[in-house]
Specification:
Blueprint lengths: L7 H22 L6 H4 L7 E5 L3 E7 L8 E6 L2 E8 L18 E8 L4 E11 L2 E8 L6 E4 L1 E2 L4
Parallel strand pairs: 6-9
Antiparallel strand pairs: 1-2, 2-7, 3-4, 3-8, 4-5, 6-7
Length: 153
């Protein structure tokens, strides 16, 4: 009698490829296009968002990163935070006991309120926390990059 070996990981990979193919068909059928940064993201940082009387405030946790590794863009009423956290091996061997932090490209999208002021968006990066303040009282109509500073807002 012949022995038949089944590798469950290959089965899972095959299912993933079929699901990816189906999703591509749906995106093509309805002409939904994702931004390149969202498609390539391998993880999503945690964030808090709240509203004050004068502004919307978004705080994104990016421990172990510098402000130069983070990009912020506004496109109409969407605010995108993206970048990449690179893994720096600090051990002489590559034998980890566990690895819980996420590495690689990330992207996070936030929908801005209708009264967001395009000219009043400020971003500060300090101690691994990115704080974005979007002033109220205007309208976001175009697309722009936001400079990230480490100075008080």
């Amino acid at each position: 009698m012949a022995k038949y070996n089944v590798n469950p990981w290959l089965e899972i990979q095959g299912m993933k490829e079929k699901m990816d193919s189906l999703m591509d068909e749906v995106l093509d059928r309805f002409e939904i296009r994702e931004r390149k940064s969202e498609r390539l993201a391998t993880w999503c940082p945690v964030a808090d968002a709240y509203e004050t009387q004068d502004a919307y405030v978004i705080q994104v946790e990016l421990a172990g990163m510098d402000k130069d590794q983070v990009s912020i863009e506004v496109n109409h009423n969407e605010l995108w935070v993206y970048g990449e956290r690179r893994m720096i091996k600090e051990v002489s061997s590559s034998r980890y006991q566990f690895l819980e932090r996420s590495y690689g490209p990330f992207a996070r999208k936030f929908t801005l309120g209708h009264k967001a002021d395009e000219s009043g968006i400020r971003a500060r990066f300090q101690a691994g926390l990115l704080t974005i303040v979007v002033r109220k009282g205007g309208e976001v109509s175009g697309s722009q990059k936001i400079k990230v500073t480490d100075e008080p807002m």
